[in-house]
Amino acid sequence: MTSRLTPEFDLFSTSGKRTGFIRAPHSVHRSAYGFIPIPVAVIAHGEGPTVLLMAGNHGDEYEGQVALGKLIRTLEPGQVRGRLIVLPSANFPAAIAGSRTSPIDDGNLNRSFPGNPDGSITEQIAWFIEETILPRVQVLIDLHSGGSSLTYVPSALARRHADPAVMAETITLLRAFGAPITYLANAAQGADQTSSAAAARKGVRHIGTELAGGGQVTPAALRACEGGLRRVLHRLGVLTEAPAEPAPPTRLLEVLGADYYVYAPEDGLFEPLVELGDTVQAGQPAARIHDQATPWREPALASFEHAGLVICKRVPGLTRRGDCLFHLGTDCDG
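Structure (tokenized):
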């Protein structure tokens, strides 16, 4: 099976620094023979690992997009040992729209792997990443944040691995990133359709992030992203110069199951009863949901099913039944 997507240059033989586009053919009313230009950069020099850096997997998650753009502009080949392939806005239609999903096909790239070379645009992008790029890289770093609907304590994360040696090296990379929070997650619903699942299928090491969010870019989250990225790349041997700032300490947590999440029980206005970084107990009230149509009615109450640290919180006040309001992490040893 052959991808319909075509890079403007060879991602794996280019040396030095080169920028351009991966062309996804797209014939529409306004452009019969057009293509979607997915930005890509390669920075390569000498022998070393090949690392894929990705952001804009969800288009409304901006911190990684900004950080990778800055990295492309400032990093020179002489500072690299190996090869960096950089996709700053992997789901480009979603990134341009500032949307979690693509406005073309409503595709959520991080729920579309392994994709389909003859499918929708989002499925084609997923297939190209999994079948064309990942088989030839050693590490994937996928930069996410809370996007428009959530905000996080800035976090680095990875899925658990059955091999203790792989898990130990993954935790070493996460500690090198140095986010305030680091968490390990078990496979969840839809987890076989994510970039981390794609990496696992190809035997590629993977780490990710959840860098604040709320539909904005904050200086603190961007600093955490930029510094963490350079420390991990140095740890991997791709960057020759050690970052000036050492990794700050990180708190290691795990997210184990559905009871770590709190969902809206009704439609209405979300009144949070706790904040990010709070420690909560099982049974503790988490939020009230106020009915706008019958404001004299007592609000519905959502409670925590598990004890832990609040690492994620919904942003918009207007919510519907089934929306995620919070999720927790609990301390672990790795």
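The chain has six helices and 19 strands. The mean pLDDT is 96.
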